[in-house]
Specification:
The protein has helices at 28-33, 53-57, 105-111, 135-142, 177-190; strands spanning 2-5, 37-41, 44-49, 61-64, 69-74, 87-92, 95-100, 117-120, 125-131, 150-154, 157-164, 167-173, 194-195. The chain has 207 residues and is of the alpha+beta class. It has two domains: 2-7 and 68-120, no CATH class; 18-64 and 125-197, Gyrase A, domain 2 (2-Layer Sandwich). Strands 10-11-12-9-4-13 form a six-stranded mixed sheet. Strands 1-8-5-7-6 form a five-stranded mixed sheet, with no helix packed on it. Strands 2-3 form a two-stranded antiparallel sheet. It is globular and about 50 Å long. Mean pLDDT is 91; it is low at 1-5.
Length: 207
């Protein structure tokens, strides 16, 4: 692939002069307030466990998957990219957002055309996962969108809703991440749900 810009890629930051860079999600404060356990993965703090997550997931759980890598690809690839945990979301006929776990970086890069303009936007988005039997109800309380994947207004800001097995993911600009996570948590609490760690997601919904 050509035209790659890596300045928004947290995983490419390097230790230097005693400085150890670790990226934080816009939703991290909510998870810390819930006494979540964090691990460093691929240059990011990831909330992996949350007290009470089993009870939350039995209704609707919200996990933070902002550690996923993200590429803005133009033109959009002719076919969806392959690989474990790789999602190709077509923003327009000529533009796609590709989400993937960092372990799939080489496989994803190998599938992109040499003439593609690829911008690493991993630091530009907050990605929240909704899981559990009330996940669809939670989506309905946040947006009027009905068909997925789709983009539009989510909690009064622009974002995207993507299906993920039996659950959903919402992708929003990181500057709105804390706000949308807070609104989603309020709605989830009314449904008997709450925050869960990334490792509590079902296998098919986990990166």
């Amino acid at each position: 692939m050509s035209g790659t810009l890596d300045f928004l890629s947290p995983s490419l930051a390097r230790d230097e002069g005693g400085f150890h860079p670790v990226a934080r999600s816009a939703a991290e404060r909510l998870f810390r307030a819930a006494d979540a356990t964090f691990e460093e993965r691929d240059g990011r703090h990831v909330a992996v466990r949350v007290p009470g997550e089993a009870q939350h997931a039995a209704r609707v759980g919200i996990a933070d998957l902002s550690h996923l890598a993200a590429l803005d690809v133009r033109p959009a690839p002719a076919a969806d990219l392959e690989g474990a945990g790789v999602t190709t979301y077509r923003l327009s006929p000529r533009r796609a957002l590709v989400l993937y776990p960092h372990a799939a970086r080489a496989a994803v890069g190998a599938q992109l055309g040499h003439d593609a303009l690829v911008v690493d936007v991993s630091g530009a988005y907050t990605v929240l996962a909704f899981t559990g039997p009330e996940a669809r109800a939670l989506i309905s309380r946040l947006t009027h969108l009905h068909h997925f994947p789709s983009g539009g207004e989510i909690a009064h800001v622009t974002g995207h809703v993507l299906p993920a097995e039996a659950g959903y993911r919402i992708v929003i600009a990181q500057e709105h991440g804390h706000y949308v996570a807070e609104v989603a948590l309020d709605c989830a609490a009314a449904l008997g749900g709450g925050l869960v760690g990334a490792d509590a997601l079902p296998a098919g919904e986990r990166p």
